[in-house]
Each structure stands twice: as structure tokens, then as C-alpha cells.
Amino acid sequence: MQDVDEDDGHDVAGFTEPLPEGDEEASNLSDISGVSLGNNQPQEVEEDIDALISDVQDHVFGEMRLPEDVLHEVQSTWTAFLAAMPSRDAAGEAIYGVVFDCAPELQSLFKTARSVMAMRFVNGLNLIFSELARPTSLKVVTETLGFQHLDIEVTTPRVCLFRDAILDVLESEVGSILTPQGKAGFLATLNYVGGAMIYVRREYGDRISVLRTSWIAASIARLGDDEDDNGEDVGHAGEPSGKQEMFLFNAAVMGFTASMGWMSSVLEQFENMVLNAAKSNRLQEECDVLSLVLVKSKEAIVYAEFKAVMLASLRSLVPKIWGVEHEVAWTWFWDNLERMIKSQVANLKGQQRSVDRFIKSLDDQSIAKLCRDVYKRFFEQAPSGQNFFKQSTTRLYFIAGKVLEMSLDIYLKPREMIEEISALGLRHVGYGMPTELFPPFIEAWSQSIQSMQVDARAVSSLRWSLTLISKCLVRTILEGSTIVMKAINTNSAKRFRKAISIASRQSREQELLKITVGTQSISPLYWAIQSGSFQVARAMLTDLLTIRADRDNYYYGCDALFERHPDILQELCAVRGQGLLPTMLDGLCWRSKWTIHKMRRVNYFVKHLIQNSDGTFNTSILVLVKLNDPNLIRHPVVSFVFKMLWSRMASYSFLQSRIVFLFLVVLVVVSQSILPRVNVQQETNAHRAALFASRMVAYLADLGPLLFSHVWLSVKDVRRRSFVYVAGVLPMPAYLGNLTTLSQLFLVFVMLLMCTQEPIFACLQDMYGDFPGAGLFTTHCPAAVARENVYSVLSQLSVLLHWLLLTDLCIFSLRVCAYLLTCLRVLVELFHFCLAVTFLIAAFSCAIASLGTFLVDFYTIPAGAGSLLRIILGMYENKRFVALREFPRVYSLLVIFCITTLIFLANLLVAQLTGAYKTVYGDMEGYAKLARSSVTVDTIRSQRPRKWAAFLASLKLEDRIEFNEGDVGMAGGIQVLEPANLNPTYEECIHRFGGSTSVENPWPEESSLEKGSLDIRLKRLEKLVVRATKNMMKGMDGGSIGSGTGSSAASSFASGASSGSSMNESA
To answer: What mean pLDDT comes out for the span 849-875?
Structure first.
């Protein structure tokens, strides 16, 4: 200490000079040197002594030197205090408790767990007292401390509270050894530190502003962008043009290429540090994360290298504004950052291993015990936390296990974990988790781990990582907790409308679609849908798709909605029972309330339903078909889209493909049903050649492509493990879930069997043998005759399947398609009838056979079943019925059978078909549209990109379309005319506002638009009646003054009633 004083030119006197009585405390520091500030003129020693003793000094900030004996008293007393406490944590807890007992209002300034803050208190004070013998280092430590508290309002009264609280703790714990000199030394030191923090916050605020403005200027600066007089760029190719490139360029020029690994890590995080320099908590968080990255670096870290490269880069990027103040500010900022990062890197070494060893030492029983202890302590410290941790015990243990896992992963992969934690924090925004619960949660973990009697290093390491995680979560929650998200948590559409009403016109859409914190973002709309807040989600969709306008601009959130959420259709279809999909579809349509020549303008804004952002066909529209909802497909917007796609794009291509198949059907009919029946007795070679050629073309042109297509689709689905299950058991490729493809597959098998049984192929080796009809391509050889029966059955199946597959041509007419679908829908009733008839035939044939009759028609069970079937079909001869009268028992059973089947079941079938038809008739048009829409999507998928691009160009979706005449609106829509009586519209769909047209202003209150509505007026009348009734009740209870009160109440009621009646009349 003596050497330092001599070098600095100051004399340190002893405590021997007598002072006035009653000023003992001042006498103990009569020879403490004053505080000096850099290049300022030195002050008188006595004046600085008096200033430090009397109060906090925030007008200067220099080096403080204590006399040797006072310094020794302060350090020895502090050492004794730490020794007197069970641990440093206990010492910090004591200081923390006294500070906040003296000033409870200060607790709001500290968001970290109690144990963490207590440790910070004791570590910070210990560092200050340990540096008292080195004034220069003490000033650096104090300046860094002030730098870390830039965003906290440090004032003289608050400093005095902290100072007095710390002195109270020292007096209560080590009062016996706390001498007046030591007390005065503590007083001067704490006043010095507090004054320095106030000074740094006040005087260095301009430096923060210089940092921010110069960094933003450097971010938008581009070198080599100078232009000549003609406006042409004269920059040189290869020149660095931004911060990143300039930094790499300067690092290479200065010879720091070997250090680019760790320097790139710092540069990656440097922007967040600069922009959050005034936010000490955020800056400390960034330094902690960077320290975790740097501690893993294998390279030697020389922080001065980064400083030199960064300053050189900034000077090059903003040379016009760079000055001395920039040099000072950036040097000051980096020096403080360097000290913070260095100290943190030094502390982090070995922490990862400690945490890893601790976690690996835990078995399942220990983890379960730790989890129970954590939640027990947490619920004791924060009882309100039980309202948020309502899951099962296994779920709570799972959460605790994830916390332990994250506490280790933050050391292993810090950058990735910060991204995951930010995403987790945004999810907690949606959960409505109060940030006040995080400190007690971390405190519970700290106490529980400490109670396990583990290594102190592991406890501190885990506490540090958990604190960093909680800080990231709290910051993310605070930054992401907008009033819109709070409204979502309450599922209140009214609160949502009130919350969004203050948003500017420009940012209103983003408030509903994207909340960004760091590199992570969350969609309030999607969160409302996924969390079940459907009232708010419905209000959001309505707000986004409401067209608002002022004199200058139209505002419509359709483009923003689909750009942010291209999969919005799938998301809304997943919760279709909540009515969100019709709400969105309603918002895509505008109808004019004016009619011209009995026609009304309608604008369908369907650009994003038709195409993706890259201009390709939007195949996600298929989800509207897969819902199989006949009412939804008839929605005006959906119906318009599919009708347009069918009529202008898909119908012609589909017809082309079916014309080919129609030719094949004709060819199959000719080869199987016509040519074999023409001139059978006198076949010619030309006739046989035509038969052979037609069948070969059918096999090659019909069977070949079908076989190849089904093999390819089957292999594709098997590779993708895409199956559908028959009866929930038998798997088959997913593409066979369609009746058409299943029929095609059956046709493939039938035609393959036809090939194996083809008579012409059987006779190829014996065409000119000794048999009738021998000759070229004959079908009458003995081998062919043996196959004739099998081939004829396969032939008829093939013809029937071809005609069945031809029924899909009915989609060209919705009425015919609806009729066909109706027939298919009521077939199930016919199946039930056949099932009942089959049961009765089996029962009665067995019963008649048991009579022992010798009638030929009923001698055996099969014979009896055949006869009963002929009776039902009306094919049983009447004379046989007459003969059966001679057998009364058989005849009586037949009468009962006929009454049951021909009268009861037949009439029941008619009634069932009528009821089923009435049930499905209303939806048949919708189902027909669904069938056509499915074909439309499949057809357009197979179109060439050039044809699709030409179709989009014909729609002119990029051109703005009119609303009413002369009122040009937005692009992305298609305008059509519809009959005026089809969808009557009496109110203007566009909300128009006057006044300022600034995009920064919010929209005026829309409640004024509803003041004249009947609901509003009725509610107002109800309030008047309630108020008048209360006044009357008060008048009745008023005694002597009741008459006056009653009359006033009556008059109030009368006026309210008259007002209400007038409102109703106007309504």
C-alpha cells in the first residue's frame, strides 16, 4: 500500500490528529485519500475524506486509497464474518434477508432466485473488499459492477439502504471485532461503490447511445456502393461490403486467421450484446452463453485481437461519422465485456464435468426422491404454483427429468439449447405461466440438491446452469407476452378485440400471426387453435379477413395469413367441428350491396387456395374434399374454386383421357360380344384376323398400361409403408382405398386370366388340324373348346367391369352423378333385404325338408331353397302351387313364407328405400361435387407446368380488381356476377374510416358502428331498467324521505322506459 501511495504522489497520514468531541466516526477516516477521476484536477484530501464519510459521492469517479490499518481492519472483519457463517451461501442469505427486510419494495428489482442473488451479493462484496489494496483494480471492478447495473435505477437513498443493511449484518454477526476504524472503512467503501454505480449510469448513458447508433449505421453500410455521375456503381468487385465480410477481411489482413474460430463465435453474438448494452440482465445472459461457447475453444483466446479487428472494421464501415467519442465508447464497452467474459470463462472450467458426474451418480430412486423434494419445497415457497402444476406425478417427474437434462445440455451445446429454451419459453407464453414462479422453482432445485450432501462444486454448477435457463425463459416469456396472447389464455373474444384495437394499421396482422423472440417465433392464431381457445381463434380469423379501408389504402390480411401459414387449411380442417373453416372461407368473399341489372358483383380472393407461393398448384385444397362434408363443398368460395378449376382446366384433360378408355371399351365389346357372333358357321380368314387383332390391341393397350400402373403404385406404397386395412386386419396398398382403382385392379386380374385361357393362343400350334372350323387364328380347336366355359365367364366379367369403369363420365353432369350416388347410397338397404330373405329361405327350406315330404321341389334342402327363391322372384309355375294344396303342411308353410317375404319384407324395403332417399337426397348434390372435385385435383396434378402457368396467367391474379365501379381494390381475386337474389346483402362488407391515413395509427373504435344495432339498444334499455329498479328499492327503504326518492326513481324509470320504447320504435 505504501508503494502505491508514493507512486501516486499522495501521503497517507495516521489516525493521530485530535478531532472535536462527538465526531469519532469522522476521526477514524481523517486520513483516507480522496477520489480522483482520470485527468481531472486532484482534490484536497480533507474534502474527499469528509465527502466519503458523510454521504454517497456520485459527481466523481476515481481511485480510492485506504490507509494500511483501515484496509487491514476492513479485510480482517470481512474475513471473520465469512468464517462466522456456516458457508458463503449462508452469509449471502443473511445479507439478502436484511436488505429486503429494510426495503421490501426493492424485491421487484431482482427476478433471480433468492439463493442465486444471495451468492451474487457475497461474491460481489468479497471481490470489492479483496481489491481494496489495489486501487486501480478496485476502480475496474467497480466500473464493471456499474456497467452490469445500467438498467437498474441506482439512487442515493437505495445505496444508503444497502450500505446500512450490510453494516447491520456485520454488527450483528461480528460486532465484537468491528472497530470504529473498520466500520468507517466499510462505510467509505460502500459509499464509493454506490456513488460509482450512479456515476456510471448517469455519465455513460451517452456511450450506450453512441454504440447503438454507430452499430446500426454499420449494419446498413455498404462499401463499394459509390456511384458516378451517371448513377452507375463504381465499386470494385471483391471488396467487402458488410460487417461480416469487413471483419473477416481485416482479420486476414492483421494476421489473425488462426483465431477465426473463437472470433467468429464472438462476432455471432456481438450484435445482441451491443443492442442490449443498456439491459444488464440480457447482456449478462449473452455473456454467459458466449462464455459457454468460448470455454470449449481449443485455440488460445487473445481478446485484444477481436477488439482491434472490430474497431478497424467499424472505422471502415462508418468513416464519415466516426469520431473520438466512438473510439472511447467502443473501447469502454469492449473492456467491460472482456472482463465479464474472462471472469465467467474462468469460473466455468470444470463445471460441466461436475454436473455430468452428479447426474450420472443418480439412480432411479435418487431421482424420484429429488423430484419429490423439489416440488415439495417449491409448493411451500410458492403455493400458487400448484394451480399450474396440476399434472400427474409421473408427468411432473418427467418435467423434472427434462430440467436435469437441460442443465447438462446447456454446457454441452449452448447455442442449440438457447434456441430450444426460447421455443420452450414461447410455449409457456401460451400457457400463461407467471414469471414470478421461476425464482422459487430454481430456489427449490438449489435447496434440494444442496440437501443431498453432494460436492459444493456440483451444487454451484447446477445452480448456475439452472439460473441461466430460467433467465432465458423469463426473458422469452416477458418479450412474448403480448396482450393478444393474454386474451388467448382467457378465451375471450371481447378481451381480444379490446387488446388488438390499439395495434397500428401496419402491424395489426403481425400481432395476430407472429410473435418473435430472438430467432424463435410463435403464431398467436395457431396457439389459439391448438390450445382450444376457439372463440378467440374465430375472432382472429374474422379480424384478419375483414377488409378495412381509408382514403389511401386497403387493409386485408388474406396474403399475410397464407404467407405465414400455408397449411392453414389443414389446421382448420383438423378442428372443423369448431366452425373455424367456414369463418375463414366467408372472409375470402366480398359481395356488393348494390345491384346492377339484377346482378351483383362478387369478388372471390382465392389466389392462395389455387396456387402456392412458388406458383405451383396448391394440392392442400384436397383436404376440403377428404373431409367428405357435402355442406362445406357447397360453400360459395369452395364451390366457385372447384367449378372454375373443372371448367377451365380439368374437364378437357379428363375428357381426353376418358375418350381413350371409351375407345378401349368399344374395342372390348367388339372383340368379345360382336365379332365372335358374326357369321359363326362360315368364318373367313379376314373375320378371324380382325378378331385376333382386336383382342391383341385390347390386351396391349388396355391391360398393359393398367398392369404397369398398378405394379408401380403398389411398390410405391409398400416402400412408404402406406397401407389401408380391410376390416382392420388385412393390409393393402393405400391407393386401393378408392373404388375405381380397386375395380381396375380386379379388371387386371380378370384380363390376365383371360390371356391364359385365350382360345386363339391355345390354337396357335394347331390352327390347321383336322377339326371343323380349322384355319388362321381359329378358336375351334379341341384345346380351345376345353377352355370355352372358363373363358366365357372371364369375358363377361371383363365387359361388365369396363362398363362399370365408364360410369365416371357421369361427373360431367352433376344431376346424373347425384343420381348414381343416390343409387349407391340406398344399395345398403337392398343388401339388408337380401340378407333377410336369404335367412328366411334357409330357415323354411330346412323346415320343409324336415317334414319328410317326397315332393321333388322340396325333397332336399338345396331343392327347397331353389324353389323358395323362384317363388320370391315370381318364377314358380302356378300349376305347381295347385298341386301343393294336396300337402297342407307344406302349403301352410309356403303361405307363411310368402306373407313374410313378398308382403312384409318387400313393403318394408320400399319404405326403407324411400326413407334413405329422403335422407340422402339433400346432400347428393354436395356428394356429386365432392366426386367431381376429387377428379379435378387428380387431373390437375398430372398437368404439365407450362399448361398450369398459362392457366394462372389467364386468371390475372396479380392485377387489382374493382369493388364497386371505379373503386379499385386489392389483387389476388377474381370477380364474377351473380343473380341479385341469390345471396342478398344489405350491409357494406368493407369497413371504411375517415380521419388520418397514417399506417402507424390504430383503427378507430368500431363499437361506434354498432351503436344503432338492436342488441346494443336493448342492453342499454336493460341497464336503465336495472338502475331505475335499484333507485325505487332505495326509496322504499328510505322511510321519511321515501316519497322524494320514490318520485325521483319513478321519473327516472319513466324516462328510461320512454327512451327504450323510442329505441324499439326506431329499430
So the answer is: 86
Least confident of 352-356, 615-619, 676-680, 1041-1045: 1041-1045
From CA 519, how far away is CA 72, in angstroms rounded?
51
Please tell me the distance from the alpha carbon of residue 92 to that of residue 87, in angstroms, as a whole number.
9
CA distance 924 to 815: 9
| 640 contacts 624 by C-beta, under 8 angstroms | no
User: Residue 8: what pLDDT?
Assistant: 35
Average pLDDT of the segment spanning 891-907: 91
Cβ 538 vs Cβ 531: under 8 Å = no
Q: What is the CA radius of gyration of the chain?
A: 45
CB 969 within 8 A of CB 666: no
- In three-state secondary structure terms, 854 is coil
Rounded CA-CA distance 548/467 in Å is 47
- pTM, full prediction: 0.69
Least confident of 488-502, 554-568, 650-664: 488-502
Q: How far is it, in rounded angstroms, from Cα 643 to Cα 606?
A: 13
**Which one, of 269, 253, 267, 271, lies nearest residue 306 by Cα?**
267
Beta-bridge partner residues of 601: 977
pLDDT: is 612 or 347 the higher one?
612
**Is the distance from CB of 1048 to CB of 1036 less than 8 angstroms?**
no
Q: pLDDT tens digits for 61-75?
A: 777 887 888 888 888
Structure confidence at residue 781 (pLDDT): 86
Q: Which residues neighbour 981 within 8 Å (Cβ) at sequence distance 6 or greater?
A: 598
Cβ atoms of residues 58 and 195 within 8 Å:
yes
> Among 250, 232, 159, 223, which Cα is nearest to 196's?
159
CA dist 226 and 676 (Å) reads 88
Tell me the C-alpha distance between 949 and 612, whole Å: 12
pLDDT at 38: 33
Q: pLDDT tens digits for 309-335? A: 999 988 888 888 898 989 998 998 898
Dihedral-angle region of residue 836 (phi above 0 means left; psi in -120 to 50 means alpha; beta otherwise): alpha
Under CATH, which number does the domain 2-203 receive? 1.10.490.10
Q: Can you tell me the distance from the alpha carbon of 23 to that of 760, in angstroms, rounded to the nearest whole number?
A: 132
How far is it, in rounded angstroms, from Cα 136 to Cα 328? Answer: 19
Q: Which of 614, 624, 608, 511 is nearest to 571 (CA)?
A: 624
Right CATH for 208-223+239-346 from 3.30.70, 1.10.490, 3.80.10, 3.30.420: 1.10.490
| Full DSSP string of 339-376 | HHHHHHHHHHTTHHHHHHHHHHT--HHHHHHHHHHHHH
Residue 297 to residue 299: CA distance in whole angstroms: 5
Closest CA to 33 of 165, 233, 188, 163: 188
Cα separation, 271 vs 928, whole angstroms: 59
DSSP string, 769-831: SSSTT-STT-S-SHHHHHHHHHHHHHHHHHHHHHHHHGGGGGGGSHHHHHHHHHHHHHHHHHH
Contacts of 490 (CB under 8 A, 6+ apart): none
Q: How high is the pLDDT of residue 48?
A: 54
DSSP characters over 520-548 = EEE-HHHHHHHTT-HHHHHHHHHHHT--E
pLDDT of residue 1006: 66
Domain ranges for the chain, please list them. Answer: 2-203, 208-223+239-346, 351-480, 483-617+944-992, 651-812, 816-941, 1014-1066
Compute the half-sphere exposure of residue 692: CA atoms within 13 Å on the CB side of its CA: 19
Residue 1052 has pLDDT above 50, yes or no: no
For 351-480, the fitting CATH number among 3.30.565.10, 1.10.10.10, 1.10.490.10, 1.10.3810.10 is: 1.10.490.10
For 486-495, the pLDDT digits (tens) are: 788 888 888 8
